[in-house]
């Protein structure tokens, strides 16, 4: 019966030991192997599935360590009957529960919910974006094989005895001290400021940081001002806590700082690369915003998620670097420029606020994965993060230049918002044209673009805006993709 579990060929692109072990565990739990007979000898098994004998030996040894097998002297490996029967007993109980007739659902959750998030307007991104030949999708990155290899090394090092004792225990509400030190020494100075460990909190990505801050500082009626257009998820976070939002227009220098900010309790901004237009707030505008905060007594929530991606001139200091009164709450991301799925971010703020955020985080999830934190600390300490940023900046700079040049040549009837970097461009289609219709036609042709109306707070947003992310698309696909987009725009324009 073992043969049917190895009928499908092994995938040479995956680790052989892992594949063989998975199939043997499946066979054991399925009852395909008798308890009283030994497994095929390692030489026999290796010949059957056409792998080396050493590979099979290592798999058998690991299965014995995990309790599935036991080694009997001079007889070979047998299934550990007691251990496996325990596992099978659990499975039988699960199957028995599944046989209980399911009653028709009679629970009405509508009147029980104290908050509802499912009705919020969100950015929609297809899960199969990899399948599009021209994925101008924002928030994804092209794989960096060097960084991936370095990250695997760091995870392996983090798992050694030297480091494992520092992450195996529950840290309760503390962060990995090595990561905190590396952020303070290696990350923050590039943003123009330093801090102390008690002023820093590690979070599950930058967005989790925004949510934690909103829980503490927002409530029914709290006035939060933000950019127009602005970051959709931040808007939804504030609204979900009952905040009253007021929007302020963005121009080529960032959010417009006027006396209309008077009365705000919190002002949320993305000064490094504004979401979604990618414009960078000038130093003069930053100083004006800080002066307004002092004058009108509001706090500033700085989301500096793409600080490293400036391609023109030196990297601009973060808004926090100019803060003399402690009004700026700085949020950064470690994972977005590296591996977006890793989800590691941080908050830098005054110690009393960090203490409250730490207590809140303890109630939610205590702390982020200490293994991931230690691996990231090693990644930073060995210089891999800086090297990755240099490679990423060089790659994205070429794509950025190609995007701007090709858009100017191929889409003369469209207006591109000029930036100094980032990973997307903000495109205005001809007046009266629907970005959603363009996106729908583009998708049918294998071209993925994102309508921009969702980024506006007002009820009548402009319908002719597109955001074109270029981090995930290959450099050589940019111009053919924009040619395809240009053809769709011409057809709709008539």
TrEMBL record:
Gene3D superfamilies, per the entry: Type I PLP-dependent aspartate aminotransferase-like (Major domain), Winged helix-like DNA-binding domain superfamily/Winged helix DNA-binding domain
Domain of life of the native organism: Bacteria
Any Pfam family hit: Aminotran_1_2
Domain (HTH gntR-type): residue spans on this chain: 14-82
Family matches, as SUPFAM superfamilies: PLP-dependent transferases, Winged helix' DNA-binding domain
Molecular function in Gene Ontology: DNA binding; DNA-binding transcription factor activity; pyridoxal phosphate binding
Keywords, comma-separated and alphabetical: DNA-binding, Pyridoxal phosphate, Transcription, Transcription regulation
InterPro entries: Aminotransferase_I/II_large, HTH_trans_reg/aminotransferase, PyrdxlP-dep_Trfase, PyrdxlP-dep_Trfase_major, Tscrpt_reg_HTH_GntR, WH-like_DNA-bd_sf, WH_DNA-bd_sf
PANTHER family with a match to the protein in the record: HTH-TYPE TRANSCRIPTIONAL REGULATORY PROTEIN GABR (PTHR46577:SF1)
Family: In the C-terminal section; belongs to the class-I pyridoxal-phosphate-dependent aminotransferase family.
Protein name: GntR family transcriptional regulator
Natural source organism: Oceanibaculum indicum P24
């Amino acid at each position: 019966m073992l043969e049917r579990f190895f009928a499908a060929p092994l995938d040479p692109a995956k680790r052989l030991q892992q594949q063989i072990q998975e199939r043997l565990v499946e066979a054991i739990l399925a009852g395909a192997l008798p308890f009283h007979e030994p497994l095929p000898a390692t030489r026999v098994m290796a010949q059957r599935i056409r792998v080396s004998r050493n590979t099979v030996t290592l798999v058998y040894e690991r299965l014995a360590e995990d309790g599935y097998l036991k080694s009997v002297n001079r007889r070979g490996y047998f299934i550990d009957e007691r251990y496996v029967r325990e596992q099978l007993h659990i499975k039988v109980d699960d199957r028995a529960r599944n046989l209980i007739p399911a009653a028709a659902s009679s629970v009405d959750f509508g009147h029980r919910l104290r908050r509802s998030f499912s009705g919020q307007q969100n950015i929609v991104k297809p899960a199969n974006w990899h399948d599009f030949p021209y994925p101008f999708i924002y928030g994804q990155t092209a794989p960096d094989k060097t960084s991936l290899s370095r990250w695997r090394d760091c995870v392996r090092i983090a798992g050694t005895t030297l480091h494992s004792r520092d992450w195996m225990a529950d840290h309760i509400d503390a962060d990995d001290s090595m990561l905190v030190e590396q952020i303070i020494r290696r990350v923050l100075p590039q943003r123009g400021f330093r801090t102390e460990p008690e002023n820093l909190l590690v979070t599950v990505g930058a967005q989790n940081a925004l949510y934690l801050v909103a829980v503490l500082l927002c409530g029914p009626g709290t006035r939060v001002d933000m950019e127009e257009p602005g970051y959709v998820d931040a808007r939804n976070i504030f609204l979900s806590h009952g905040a009253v939002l007021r929007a302020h227009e963005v121009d080529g220098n960032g959010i417009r700082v006027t006396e209309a900010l008077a009365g705000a309790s919190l002002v949320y901004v993305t000064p490094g690369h504004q979401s979604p237009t990618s414009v960078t707030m000038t130093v003069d505008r930053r100083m004006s915003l800080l002066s307004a905060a002092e004058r009108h007594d509001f706090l500033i929530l700085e989301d500096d998620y793409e600080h490293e991606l400036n391609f023109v001139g030196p990297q601009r200091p973060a808004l926090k670097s100019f803060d003399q009164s402690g009004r700026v709450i700085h949020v950064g991301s470690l994972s977005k420029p590296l591996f977006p799925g890793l989800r590691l971010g941080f908050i830098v703020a005054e110690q009393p606020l960090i203490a409250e955020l730490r207590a809140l985080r303890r109630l939610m999830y205590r702390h982020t994965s200490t293994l991931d934190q230690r691996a990231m600390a090693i990644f930073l300490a060995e210089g891999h993060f800086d090297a990755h940023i240099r490679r990423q900046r060089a790659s994205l700079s070429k794509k950025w230049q190609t995007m701007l040049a090709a858009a100017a040549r191929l889409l003369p009837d469209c207006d591109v918002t000029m930036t100094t970097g980032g990973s997307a461009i903000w495109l205005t289609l001809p007046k009266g044209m629907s970005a959603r219709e363009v996106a729908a036609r583009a998708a049918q042709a294998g071209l993925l673009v994102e309508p921009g109306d969702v980024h506006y707070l007002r009820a009548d947003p402009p319908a002719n805006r597109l955001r074109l992310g270029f981090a995930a698309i290959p450099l050589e696909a940019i111009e053919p993709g924009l040619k395809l987009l240009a053809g769709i725009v011409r057809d709709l324009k008539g």
